Structures are given as structure tokens and as C-alpha cells.
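Input (structure):
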């Protein structure tokens, strides 16, 4: 998957070289027009608005080719052009190209205590996020029905304001990449559930699904704390446990079947506590959102609310539980740092709240278990996208087909328009 192109890009003839070592190849030949459209759309999607002259410089394509590509993307409703602000530059200023605010994807994240649905723009803006609480872990049918009902309630706004590309689903479990089958989501109790197929039938929109933490890693890599980073570890703490994702050498590292990154099952203690897989003394067994909520006396909270509650608390019991969890988290992080030697470790969900409460304790504990050389080059960071992270990650999954082939969308036709309303 191509990475972000920054402001400073070295390039050879017709090649834009990325900070992560990859390349974006451009050509003015008609037979690769689709590829060039993809190059330009990815640039403005992941790097933000750019002038035509910047696009010309980065891709190595000539000005007339860029003008034609931008004109086609405008015609398809995927980008817009505007005149730049006043400048002292001599000559006619180059128009600014940015993604259209009308192009959106729907994002869905089922969890053990809620189903969250969002509308996310191609520019990464979350236009709407609806958290629908549940009294117990929803079955796959219940999650689909909740998501479909909320989306149906948004239908008027979607049809009036937006072009919907499709739906991306962030699942707290193992998901088969090619068809969105949930192989195992232990906390939800889902085994071999055709989630993507069911949600597509219920809504009429095309649906893709993937592991939530892997999508979180992708979102942070492109839009958050990992911008410009080639080696990143992301750990997400949610209601259903702890998962992770990895970017290695600029590319997602998913393993042979897409199941890599299960940091929650890393052994961190000799405790008799067991995780969802029945393994003793793991990170997921020792570090839990549930215990933080219990010690705070809260029935539920999203990641931002939990962080606020932990920061505000003066209870010794709360502090003791935070310290215990931080110390166990440090063991897992140190092991990952020693093995993978990342540039940054990004923590999301309630793990970000632990970092926020006592960053010094976590850094000191990680350093104690890490090799000096590996720890000396790593940065610990909270996920910058906050509670919107999985919405943005799931939407990015839905956008991928459009980014790969913008020409696949007929000019002037709203993307992903349902065949019929459920």
C-alpha cells in the first residue's frame, strides 16, 4: 500500500520517491491513465491539499498531464480546485487541489458493549459518530441490525450531502481479508460469521472488514502519530481486550493470513489470570479496561471519558491499579521493541489513557526491560486520532478500492449508491 508523500520528495525522471523508501511511478501514456489518477488522488488524500505545480514536481509528470488528470478527478467529483491565497510569486499562481468533502465512507465498529457507526470524509474528517450502547455483547445479527438501522436513519443526510463509497468495519478479532469473514472474535463470541456479507445485504452498500487494531495502525500511520514513519507498532486497548498492528519497512505486517499483531496474548507475568484464549499471565489478562472502570466506579466510558476520569481521580485504589497495569504493559512493549526495533510505539484506547496518566512511569518501566540501543531510538506516543481512530481506519479500508482505481467510479455518479433501501 503506497505511503504518504511529504513536502520534501526526491525524485528521478517520472518517479516520486517517498520518505518510507517506496516510489510512486507516473506516466503520461493513456494506457496507464488509471494508475496516474490513483497516484494523484492518493497524494491529496493522504498528504492534504497540493498545488498543481507541487503535484507535477512530486510525480515527475508534465504540467499538461497533471492538468488533465486533475480535470478528470474533478469531473468525477473526487477532488476540487480553488485559487490559492494571495502570493508574491511571479506569474500565474498554480490552482490548489484537494479531495472533495462530499466523498465519504461509512465506518462500523462492533464491541462488547456498543456498536459505533460513523460518517468519514475522504479528507479524514469524521462528520458523524454514533455510539449505540448494548446491554451485552451483540450477536453478529444484532450488530448488523443496529448498524443498518443507524445507517438507515442517516440515509436522508447521506443522499442529500454525500457520495458514499462503501462501508468499512473494524472488528475486535481475526478477520479473513478477502471476504470479511470473522474467523474468531472471542469477546463477542463470533466464530466464522459472514459479517461483511450480512451487512452488505442489510444496507446495500459494499462492505469490507478487517481487524480493528490493524486498521488503527493504518489510520495512525497515515493521519496521526505515525506520519512519515516506516516502522511502527500500534497497540489498541478496547472493551474486548488488546490487539495490535505493525508497519514494518513502510508496509503493513499482517502475517500469512492477516492475523499478526496479537500483542494481547504476550506473556507478561506468572499470574493465574487467563485471557480470552485461555492463556495465563498475558497482557490481555493483566491489563483490562474493565478493572479500570470498576475501580473508578463507572459502568462505561469511551477512551476519552476514561482518560478524563483517571486524570481527575485522587483515589489511592485507582492509582494502585493504574500503576499495576502500567508495569505489565511495559513488559509487553519492551519485548516488542527488542524484537521489532520500531521508530514509534502508538497506544490507543484505554492504553493511551494509561500513558496520559503517568507517561514517566511507563517510559521508565519500558526502559528497564529494553535493550538500550533499541529504546534509545523509539518514541512512545498516544494515538493522535483519539476516539475517531477506528472510524478513520475502517473508512480507509472502504476507500482503498477508490484510491486504487478512481476511474472505476463513473463521472458524476455518487459512489456506492445502494441498489435499494433495507
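Output (sequence):
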Amino acid at each position: 500500500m503506497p505511503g504518504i508523500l511529504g513536502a520534501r520528495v526526491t525524485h528521478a525522471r517520472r518517479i516520486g520517491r517517498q520518505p518510507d523508501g517506496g516510489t510512486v511511478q507516473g506516466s503520461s501514456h493513456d494506457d496507464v491513465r488509471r494508475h496516474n489518477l490513483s497516484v494523484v488522488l492518493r497524494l491529496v488524500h493522504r498528504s492534504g491539499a497540493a498545488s498543481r505545480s507541487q503535484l507535477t514536481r512530486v510525480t515527475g509528470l508534465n504540467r499538461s498531464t497533471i492538468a488533465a488528470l486533475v480535470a478528470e478527478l474533478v469531473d468525477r467529483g473526487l477532488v476540487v480546485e480553488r485559487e490559492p491565497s494571495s502570493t508574491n510569486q511571479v506569474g500565474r499562481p498554480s490552482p490548489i487541489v484537494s479531495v472533495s468533502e462530499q466523498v465519504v465512507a461509512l465506518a462500523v465498529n462492533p464491541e462488547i458493549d456498543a456498536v459505533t457507526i460513523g460518517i468519514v470524509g475522504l479528507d479524514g474528517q469524521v462528520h458523524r459518530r454514533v455510539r449505540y450502547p448494548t446491554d451485552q455483547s451483540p450477536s453478529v445479527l444484532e450488530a448488523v441490525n443496529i448498524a443498518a438501522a443507524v445507517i438507515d436513519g442517516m440515509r436522508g443526510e447521506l443522499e442529500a450531502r454525500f457520495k458514499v463509497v462503501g462501508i468499512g468495519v473494524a472488528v475486535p478479532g481475526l478477520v479473513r481479508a478477502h471476504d470479511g469473514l470473522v474467523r474468531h472474535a472471542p469477546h463477542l463470541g463470533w466464530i466464522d460469521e459472514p459479517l461483511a456479507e450480512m451487512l452488505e445485504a442489510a444496507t446495500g452498500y459494499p462492505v469490507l472488514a478487517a481487524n480493528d487494531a490493524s486498521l488503527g495502525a493504518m489510520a495512525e500511520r497515515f493521519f496521526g502519530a505515525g506520519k512519515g514513519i516506516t516502522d511502527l507498532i500500534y497497540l489498541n486497548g478496547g472493551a474486548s481486550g488488546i490487539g495490535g498492528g505493525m508497519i514494518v519497512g513502510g508496509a503493513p505486517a499482517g502475517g500469512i493470513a492477516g492475523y499478526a499483531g496479537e500483542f494481547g496474548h504476550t506473556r507478561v507475568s506468572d499470574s493465574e489470570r487467563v485471557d480470552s484464549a485461555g492463556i495465563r499471565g498475558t497482557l490481555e489478562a493483566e491489563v483490562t479496561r474493565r478493572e479500570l472502570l470498576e475501580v473508578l466506579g463507572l459502568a462505561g466510558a469511551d477512551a476519552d471519558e476514561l482518560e478524563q476520569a483517571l486524570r481527575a481521580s485522587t483515589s489511592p485504589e485507582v492509582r494502585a491499579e493504574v500503576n499495576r497495569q502500567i508495569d505489565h504493559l511495559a513488559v509487553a512493549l519492551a519485548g516488542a521493541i527488542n524484537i521489532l526495533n520500531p521508530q514509534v510505539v502508538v497506544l490507543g484506547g484505554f492504553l493511551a489513557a494509561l500513558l496520559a496518566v503517568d507517561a514517566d512511569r511507563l517510559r521508565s518501566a519500558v526502559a528497564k526491560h529494553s535493550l538500550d540501543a533499541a529504546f534509545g531510538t523509539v518514541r512512545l506516543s498516544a494515538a493522535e486520532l483519539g476516539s475517531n481512530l477506528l472510524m478513520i481506519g475502517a473508512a480507509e479500508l472502504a476507500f482503498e478500492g477508490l484510491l486504487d482505481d478512481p476511474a472505476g467510479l463513473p463521472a458524476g455518479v455518487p459512489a456506492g449508491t445502494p441498489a435499494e433501501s433495507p
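Notes: Residues 338 and 370 are 6 Å apart (CA to CA). Confidence is low (pLDDT under 50) at residues 1-22, 412-422.
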